[in-house]
Amino acid sequence: MSISRTDIADFSYFLAIARHGSFRKAALEIGVSPSALSHSLRGLEERLGVRLLNRTNRSVTLTSAGEELREAISDPFARIDQARDALNRFRDTPTGRIRLNVAADAAALLLSPVIPVFMERYPDVEVDIVASNRMVDVVASGFDAGIRYGGTVPEDMIAQRLSPDIRWIVAAAPAYLERFGTPQDPEELKEHRCLGVRLGDDRIYRWEFMGRDGEEFDIAVPGQITVDESRSMVSIAIGGGGLMYGPEPVVAPFIASGQLQTVLDEWATTGPGFQIYYPSRRQVPTGLRLLIELVREMAPLGL
């Protein structure tokens, strides 16, 4: 059976659907409508004479034939992408597209200062950033790399450090402290209004501290409000909603302005900074390598 240009395009569409498990998300990645994508896949199934996908109103899954096709063509398509990217060394300016899944704090603190410079230096490289604290499989979801706090990076990935370790602090609005008092010991947090932290895997974070004996410990704090993103938490804290726990670089501008005030400073602990990670079996795309180099060059948080 000969392979046509239509087949090659439809194979790439099929791989995008397999990655996302969704016509809508795959269509967004490719830049076509979901209906056009569905039409192309039906045409591919008719030409091959097998059903590749099980479609319901709620999900899209691969049939046995679809699983076998994905296994057979994923590596060849990946090698084509690598070969195309390798041609960048023969160009005056690199081209391409990189997709990043980034913790919300990293997007604001690391990438926001760097991206405008990156755009000027490499105008032909597109960067697609998904800023989310949800933990995802970056490979299965079609991302080139992820950026997370060091302690949450999957162990089977290659990781590079992009920032120094980060200090985690407790802060509140002066009006809150005037009304409810200032805790002098982490145990006193149990008598306060605390803003809960929801992690990317849906667990509720236990606030961590460094004891006077040099040993770390954590506390489950009480809280009526739980938030999964630092900047929303800052806004609530500024409004007097309670004590918040967060990374010092996020909170620092509001401490400097007097909108927030730190407490329990002598108990503050330090955790791993931001790391970028990607699969070891893949060649690093040129655009991604250049972005890593620029972040390390500019070092928005130091390094």
From TrEMBL:
<feature type="domain" description="HTH lysR-type">
    <location>
        <begin position="6"/>
        <end position="63"/>
    </location>
</feature>
<dbReference type="InterPro" id="IPR000847">
    <property type="entry name" value="LysR_HTH_N"/>
</dbReference>
<dbReference type="InterPro" id="IPR036390">
    <property type="entry name" value="WH_DNA-bd_sf"/>
</dbReference>
<dbReference type="InterPro" id="IPR005119">
    <property type="entry name" value="LysR_subst-bd"/>
</dbReference>
<keyword id="KW-0238">DNA-binding</keyword>
<dbReference type="InterPro" id="IPR036388">
    <property type="entry name" value="WH-like_DNA-bd_sf"/>
</dbReference>
<dbReference type="Pfam" id="PF00126">
    <property type="entry name" value="HTH_1"/>
</dbReference>
<comment type="similarity">
    <text>Belongs to the LysR transcriptional regulatory family.</text>
</comment>
<dbReference type="Pfam" id="PF03466">
    <property type="entry name" value="LysR_substrate"/>
</dbReference>
<protein>
    <submittedName>
        <fullName>LysR family transcriptional regulator</fullName>
    </submittedName>
</protein>
<keyword id="KW-0805">Transcription regulation</keyword>
<dbReference type="InterPro" id="IPR058163">
    <property type="entry name" value="LysR-type_TF_proteobact-type"/>
</dbReference>
<keyword id="KW-0804">Transcription</keyword>
